[in-house]
Amino acid sequence: MAGNAFTAFGRLGLIRALFLLLMCHGIFALSATGSLRGDLILRNGSIHTMSEAEEVVSVVGIKDGVIVYVGDDQTEALGNFVNTPDIVDLQGRTAVPGLIDCHNHIVLLGNRPGFHTPLENAYSIADVQDTYRSRATGVPTGKFITTIGGFHPNHFVERRLPTLAELDEAVPDHPAFISYGFAGPATTNSLGKTFFEALPSPPAISANGSIAFGENNGKALLALRQQLTLADRKRGVHDAMAYAASMGVTTHLDQGAFPKSDTPSDGAANEDLYSMHLPWLSVYDDEGGIIRLRINFLHMDDVIEVPTVQQRLLNSFKFFGNDMVRTGGIGEFVTTDYAGGPFFTEAAGRIADARWRLEVHSLTATDFQSQIQAFEAIDGNSSIVDLRWVVAHVPLITPEYLQRLKKIGGGVNLSGWQYLAGTGSQAGPPFRDILDSGIPAGIGADGMQIAPLNPWVHAYYATTGKNAVGQVINTGQLLNRLEALRLYTRANQWFLGGEDEQLLGSIEVGRLGDVVVLNEDYFSVPDETLKKLRSFLTVVGGVVVHEDSTFGRLGN
User: Are 411 and 381 in contact (CB under 8 A)?
Assistant: First the structure.
C-alpha cells in the first residue's frame, strides 16, 4: 500500500484518505508517549531553564524522557535513578530548552526533491561551493544536489546566485539545482543543464546556468519532483530532522502547503495535501523520529460550502497522536479569500462550532483588520476565547487590533522573514509593540520557502532590526536577547494546545527532557555571531539526537 500511496491518495475521498493514512501508518496504535525516552544527566553547564522564575542551574536530570531534577547537585540528581544514567559534562557551556518553532513548513522541507541542502547559513558563493562540496561526499555520483527556498542572494557577499561554472567547480559529478523564494529564479550546472534540456518541455536555461522566475523555474522543479519515490521522501525527512536538530529546534508546528497541480505553476510551497505527511509518519512509525512534529491542516476552499474544511472537521482528530507527532489545528490558510471574505467567514464559523484551533496569515495593512473583525463576529455567536486563534506574521498590525484580538483570546506569531529581503525603516513585525501589549506571542520562522529555518537568524533580526545587507529596517521595535529566547521557548507553549502546553518550552521537573547545548553563549556573543550559533548537543526526551563532532562530550 505504502509504495502506491502517492497516486492512490490523489484518487481517494478526503474521509477515506485521512483514515487510511492514519491506519496504514500506525497512528491509531500510538501510545501516549513517543519513542525517545532516555536517562541522562547534564552537568557543569550554564543551563537557562526559561521557567517563570528563569533560574540558571548547572545540573539537569532526565529519567525515561522526563525531567526529574533541576538544580546544582549531581549527587542529588543521581538519587532519582535506580540504574546509573549517561552523564554528560557540558564543560561550562550555555544550554537552553529545546526550541519550539510555532510556525514553519518543515514537512515541505522533508519532501524536497534531490539531496536537499540548506543554504541559509552560507554568506558567500565560496560558502555555497564549500557546502555543496561537503554534501557531495555523501551523495551517489550523478544524483541531484538541490536547494529550494529558505535563503536569498542578499545573504551572499556577491548578492547573486552561483553560476554554472562555479557549481561545476564545486560538484563536477553531480547535477545541481538552486532556487529561492516560491518560484525562483534558479541556477544549475552543466550536468543539471543537460538533464533539464533533455525534457520534453524544457525550461529555458542561459549559458551561465540561470533559470528565470516563474514557469521556467516551475518546469525544472516539476521534473525533479516527478522523480521522487517514497524512499527518497523518507530520506528527505531524516535530513530535515537532522538539520533542525543541529539548529536546536526540537518542536515544530507545521503549517501545511498549497495544493499541487502537477504543472509548472507549482512552486516551492505546493504539495499533495493528503499524502505529504506519509513519509513523515512512516519515519515515526519506524521509530526514526528525532524531533517533535505538530501538524496543522491547510485548506484553500473557494466555494461557500467550504467542503474540504467541513470534511476535515468531521473526520479528523485535533491534538491526536503522542508526544513525538500529533495533529494540531487548521491553517495557516482555510480559504482563497483568507483576508476575511465570505468563504473565510463561513469556514471560520464552522471551525469555531467544532471547537478547533485556527491560524490565519497576515501580510498587509488591512488583512488582519478584516480577519479580526470576522473573529469578533464569530465570537459573538460561538465564543472562541478558549480556542487560541492566531494571526500569523503580522508585519503591520496596529496596537488597536492587538488589543481587539487579545480580548477574544487570540494570539500572534512573529517571524524574521523580512530579514532576507525586507526594506524600508519599519518592515515589521512590531516586536516591541506586540510584547508590550501583553497578547500571547511567539516566534515561528516560516521556513523554508521565503525564510530561514535557522532560529538564530530570527533572533538576530528581532534584536538588531537589521536585514541581510546590514540595513536597519525595523526601527524602534527591538527585543533584548532574553525576550527573544522567551518567544522561542516558554511563550511558544501557548501555540501548541492540548497537553503539550505543560510538557514543552522550559526545563522544569515533570516536563519532557528537551535541551540544547550551544556552541557559544547566546547572551554574550557579538550580534553578527548570534545568527551563526549552532547546537553542540541536542537532547530530545533524554536522548542525544545531535552532537557536533568537535564537542567531545565527557561522561563521569
Answer: no
The pTM assigned to this predicted structure is 0.94
To the nearest whole percent, how much of the chain has pLDDT over 90? Answer: 90
Contact 434, 412 (CB under 8 A): yes
- Residue 268 contacts residue 148 (beta carbons within 8 Å): yes
On whether the CB atoms of residues 511 and 51 are closer than 8 A, the answer is no
Q: In what order do the strands lie in the sheet with 535-540?
A: 56-57, 46-48, 94-97, 515-518, 535-540, 543-547
Region 403-430: mean pLDDT is 95
pLDDT computed for residue 499 by the predictor: 73
d(CA 116, CA 110): 9
What are the cell numbers at 259? 495544493
150, with CB counted inside 10 A (0-12, 13-18, 19+), is buried
Q: How many helices (H) and strands (E) does the chain have?
A: 19, 25
H or E element at residue 59: strand 59-63
Q: What is the pLDDT of residue 31?
A: 53
Burial classification of residue 380, based on how many CB atoms lie within 10 Å of its CB (0-12 exposed, 13-18 middle, 19 or more buried)? exposed
